[in-house]
Amino acid sequence: MMRKGDDRFRAVHEDEPLFITGRRTGRVIAYRVFSASVFFCICWIWLYRVTAPVEVDENRTGLVRFVWLVMLVTEIWFGLYWIVMQSPRWNPVWRFTFTDRLSRRYGDDLPRLDVFVCTADPVIEPPLMVVNTVLSVAALDYPPEKLAVYLSDDGGSELTFYALAEAAEFAKVWVPYCKRFYVEPRSPAAYLSCKASGFDSAETEEVARLYKEMAARIETAARLGRIPDEARLKYGDGFSQWDSDATRRNHGTILQILVDGRKGNTVTVPTLVYLSREKRPEHHHHFKAGSMNALIRVSSKITCGRIILNLDCDMYSNNSKSARDALCILLDEKEGKKIAFVQFPQCFENLTKNDLYASMMRVGYDVEFNGLDGNGGPLYIGTGCFHRRDVICGRTYGEVEVEEEEEESEYISETEMIKALASCTYEENSQWGKEMGVKYGCPAEDVITGLEIKCRGWKSAYLNPKKKAFVGVAPTNLHQMLVQQRRWSEGNFQVLLSEYSPVWYGQGKIGLGLILGYCCYCLWAPSSVPVLLYSVLTSLCLLKGIPLFPKVWSSWWFIPFGYVTVAANAYSLVEFLWCGGTLRGWWNDQRMWLYRRTSSFLFGLIDTIKKKLGVSESAFVITAKVAEEEAAERYEKEVMEFGVESPIFLLLGTLGMLNLFCLATAIMRLVMTSREDVQTMGLQFVITGVLVVLNWPLYEGMLLRRDKGKMPMTVTVNSFVLALSACTCVAFL
């Protein structure tokens, strides 16, 4: 609450906004002119497909007309999807905050902030990495008595609890050290790795020694798979909550306040809390959404921060002032009152120079999210997001905000009473997961939650400061990345088909621009079908000698195809470079979008259809945060990692070999018989040739490499047989 003595001082500065919103009008106008020219040529292409005669011999008329019709349908889809994709680019905005004004206006009298860090598996998400994230946010530039960090361990792991208990002890040294020496970043692992060449002070050397000792104890326990006996005695209150027969899917609620930083004038470390909610096999636990809702309830009885920050366990704080940046928007007296949450981008520390797997999604975070912000706000992406507690709990915009009393007063201390809030039966016959908290019923629970909040009248804001707020770990092999994208595309498509679909649920509640902005991502999965058909038919018709496009240079109809192909790709390259990427990085990005659309998104589409038919249920797949040493070395050298048998790789391998066979056959025919193919099928040569060049790392992995990261022989052989069979059938059709 505000102190009365500060009222006069704050009144002097009330006219100063805590943030401003900028626009780049000239660039937007130029892009609108460019997009209008592309749209004109798209319409020209549609006209060509409808009116141009099909030039082919009579024996193949039926087949070619069918292919022609499929090409028309796919090109209509591409055109309409391109229109949808323009919505985030027509009204972009940029937010700029003034943390100095926030300090002058509020000092340390800031609202309580609760930070939620979620983990689920100590093998895939190593405890040392998790506690580095916890320590980084515990050292945020924020009053420690107003800050609390909660670790939700959905794996119910004694190892994770032990790591957090050790980190709580180390935090008593680390947090004061960070604030005394203005350390950045505040993850001890990230900071001390920058000091590997030498320490600049005795204090730094001592902190490094203590951290190495803590890390050694945690990693030793992880390697041995057991907790030291002396640690069980030291942290006995916590370990005593584990039953002897407890498993990760069957255990009671475990709650331990490791550091209580709520009271006292000499607080140096914020409150640190470990929570593992109750899990029973007969009760659905709703994955990460259920974990978040349990944290919301439990924290409401311990610290009850008005603001909630949620992070994935690998997303450490890279900028200690990120909380103050977010508060500049949420506490602004004029524009901030309508903002429900502030979203930061998902950035990564382990990207290669050219971002081998396009994990950064650079254009999405540097261009599209700014456009979404201009249309009403970005999506909630499940990490790096500051929420108003009462909004995520169901408050509609315009309702009177119930001020939480923040004076040092009575806090519930009955642990068992608080534990009941995290029981697996607490939510029965309640509105949790429906009208309150994070929504259930979809793998993309974060997207649905953010959309539903906006449909209650709120907006969101996007902050992408030069110094990245939070930095995590990107997938380091192709299979991990594609599985992650499969889950995202499936979740986004389920949003489109759910009761919370932006198309019908958002009608009249959010603007058309924002509805189209959500559809950009919700249509990922269905976009796989036209991309797959277009690439396969173009190659097979090149093999068969069937022209699908106008003659190069000799036909006016070629102009729209040539313009759209050149202009769209040239703009894509310029946009990528403007976002800080490299030429090779753009090429990698094009390859990954091809792989996603022809594999991950297709499987996401199939999974969604199966779920709607009741054949399968939703599952939450955790992305691994660790890699083997040899695989990590290949990743650093930007050598693509395959190494596992997977239906995804079988599909990619088959498509890649099919493109190669078709191009090779067409070139042989061109050299030996018909030179006219260059004119009649020039664009087909270009498209198939580009697909082959994009697939070069795939061919290397299948045919040339001998390391452990190569494509498994069974996948290579099966892909070769399937592609050759398809080409043979078409050749004699």
Defining key terms:
globular, Cellulose_synth, disordered N terminus, 733 residues, membrane, 8-stranded mixed beta sheet, alpha/beta, cellulose synthase (UDP-forming) activity, Nucleotide-diphossugar_trans
> How many strands, which pairing sense, and closed or not: the largest β-sheet?
8 strands, mixed
Assign a percent range to the helix content.
Answer: 40-55%
State the secondary-structure class.
alpha/beta
Total number of strands: 13
What are the low-pLDDT stretches, counting only 5+ consecutive residues below 50?
1-5, 405-412
Termini gap: 78 Å
Q: Globular, elongated, flat, extended or rod-shaped: what is the shape?
A: globular
The portion of residues forming beta strands comes to 5-15%
Strand order of the largest sheet: 5-6-4-3-7-11-9-12
Output mean pLDDT: 91
The gyration radius over C-alpha positions equals 28 Å
Query: Total helix count?
Result: 27
Binding site for Mn(2+): 288, 312
Binding site for UDP-alpha-D-glucose: 125, 154
Subcellular location: Endomembrane system
Active site: 154, 446
Task: Describe the model.
With 733 residues, the chain is of the alpha/beta class. The protein has a domain at 112-305. 51% of the residues lie in helices and 8% in strands. It contains 27 helices and 13 strands. It has helices at 7-13, 25-51, 61-85, 99-106, 127-138, 158-181, 188-194, 202-224, 229-234, 236-239, 287-300, 322-330, 362-374, 389-392, 415-419, 445-454, 478-497, 512-522, 528-544, 558-578, 583-612, 629-636, 647-672, 677-680, 682-694, 696-704, 713-731; strands spanning 19-22, 94-97, 113-119, 147-153, 254-259, 271-276, 307-312, 316-317, 339-343, 347-348, 385-388, 459-462, 470-472. Helix 5 (127-138) links the parallel strand 3 (113-119) and strand 4 (147-153). Helix 19 packs across helix 25 and helix 21 (583-612) packs across helix 23 (647-672). The termini are far apart.
